[in-house]
Amino acid sequence: MKNFFAKFMFAALLTATFSLTSCQEEFEELPDNNDGKSIEATSATATLIKGTSSKDGSYDNIVDGASCFAIQFPYNVTVNGLDITIDSVADLKLIEEILDEIDSNDYNLQIIYPIKITLSNYTEITINSREELVAQAKECIEGGEDDDIECIDFVYPIDLFSFNTNLEITNTTTVESDRQMRLFFAGLGANDIVGIDFPITLEKYDGTKVVVNNNAELAVVLENAKDMCDEDDDNDYNDDDFTKERLDAFLVDCPMILQEIFRDSQEQTEQYLEFIVDFKENGTVITKDNDGNYIEGAWSTNIGVNSKRVELKLEFETLVDFNLEWFVYELNNDKIKLFANGGSDRIILKKYCELSGNNPNDNLSDILGECKWEFTVPSSSSIGVYNVKFLENGTVKFVDENGSVFTIDTFTTWALEGNIIIFYNANQELIAEKWKIRSYSETQMYVDIYNEDEVMYQNVLQRNCEDGAACSDADINEALLGQCKFKITNLDGTFFEELYIDFSNNNIHAYDANNTIADEGNWSLQSGTLQFNSLSMTLANYIGEWNVIECGTDTFKLERGEEIIVLTKACD
Question: Is the distance from CB of 338 to CB of 346 less than 8 angstroms?
């Protein structure tokens, strides 16, 4: 070390000799072209060093609401009547978890005084009341413009020394912490000059290490670090750190339900209560109200130029209460809280993933098989825009806009694998197109339609039971074995002659308009398929299997290939 000082003093003498004939203001500028090892105590580089080694007071904003100082451990607070002793940063996380359970801002957090705070320059002050704390907090600059630089840190130990303008060494020391570094610079006089034993190492907020070899490199690295990350210096204590990528993944994971919305500090929740908000990967967002109305808008995320925080932008033509650039102040596994305009505008959304259970097939297959499912957005699936029927016997049918039911060779049967609907063709070969159900209820389901693991389209299917449904065997048996006959017609309501069928006792007795028996046989039922047997007269051509594709209060539709017949109750 002595050899180092001797060599440096020789170099410093030469530097000082040349500097006597140059402008002294060189030290006041960022030393972009200064490769020396000396730093004036009042220079821009020294200011950057002090900012990097300042005390960060933003980690406890949840308690004191100020980022330019921190409360010294231990101290006590009460949160909604609960007494908590704060011994470490981990205890601050406990407070956050308690407040996370409170969806509104209606909570009471009180500090038990006296407390001692540490300022950014490590000055310690005793605070005896809330009024004194508020007065001290007013000295802070809200919004991330305080002097400390938090996105990069020195890696200690670092050897420092200082000497005056007469090139006399006034101090030598090894610093082991930010506190020692800041106090070292605070103890320098206006004319003192500091030397650093290069190279030194710094660590960025993301763990990346940087090695600098001189003052010029150090100044550039520290200056660039000012806007490298979100320093959480605003008083929004709860804006959990996350990336744009994490937010994007969270939004498209599954639909969300709206729990709270405020605009201009006025609650608007009632008119949007339980709105479904569904973010699509293609940048569209679809909302659904309690009346089943869908409104489509657009969403995007970006990093704020000044705040360096992730922003969510929503755009709708009609839902003007949503049209803002929102900041995220909480993001956990199943909930997101957004705010804008200093908190006067805020939204709370909670994930609505009903497929989170261990066995989503418990009631999903039953729901699928009950009714017709209609695409709420014109489908771009390979089946076109037709609506779908998932029959209990594993067959899949499609319905056009006229209500005609038909089959498609490539979509003959269906099955569930977890929350994915898979299809087989007429040769019982698995086809490539699959429908992944992201979430569902008894009235709708959100699906990703993908091919070879690549999502092609996203859509919402709405259940429609108004024009009949594919019934269970119990429903069919109860109707057919009742006290009524059934009139049999073609789909268009015509038939070659008027016939009425009595299905009681699993027999078939067909009567003509004169109440004369036109045919006799029997029937059986299994998995939604009616089997007609032993018919030999008028209905002989109808022996065989018929799929029950719809059933209502008074009507059944039976399908065999391209042929469809209708059974209508005739209880008179």
Answer: yes
Alpha helices in 72-145 (DSSP H): 89-100, 130-137
DSSP state of 501: E
Q: What is the DSSP string of 165-234?
A: TT--EEEEEEE-SHHHHHHHHHT--TT-EEEE-S-EEEEETTS-EEEE-SHHHHHHHHHHHTTSS----S
The alpha carbon of residue 111 and the mean position of all alpha carbons in its chain are separated, in whole angstroms, by 34
258 with 349: CB under 8 angstroms?
Answer: yes
Res 560: pLDDT: 86
CA distances to 450, 489, 499, 514, 567 from 494, in Å: 42, 5, 11, 18, 12
Low-confidence ranges of the chain (pLDDT < 70): 1-37, 100-107, 141-147, 164-165, 167, 230-242, 290-292, 305-308, 354-363, 370, 376-385, 401-405, 453, 455, 466-472, 492-493, 496, 553, 572
Amino acid type, 42: T
Q: What single DSSP character describes residue 381?
A: S
| Largest Cα span, the chain | 130
Residue 412 has a pLDDT of 85
> Helix, strand, coil % (nearest 5) of the chain?
20, 40, 40
Cβ atoms of 191 and 164 closer than 8 Å: yes
Instruction: Give φ, ψ of 19 to 5 degrees.
Output: -70, -20
Question: CA-CA distance, 69 to 134, in Å (whole number)?
Answer: 12
**What are the pLDDT digits (tens) for 373-419?**
887 666 555 566 678 888 777 888 887 766 666 778 888 888 887 77
pLDDT number for residue 143: 42
DSSP state of 56: P
3-state SS class at 4 = helix
Neighbouring residues of 31: CB distance < 8 A, sequence distance ≥ 6: 43, 45, 215, 216, 219
CA-based angle 86:123:64, to the nearest 5?
A: 35
Q: pTM for the complete prediction?
A: 0.46
Residue appearing with tokens 């009742």: 482
Cα 137 from Cα 465, distance rounded (Å): 62
Q: Copy the structure tokens of residue 6.
A: 């001797």
Of the candidates 564, 570, 545, the one whose C-alpha atom is nearest the C-alpha of residue 495 is: 564
Measured at the CA of 389, the angle between CA 388 and CA 392, to 5 degrees, comes to 150
Pair of tokens at residue 197: 């034993």
Helix, coil or strand: residue 146 = coil
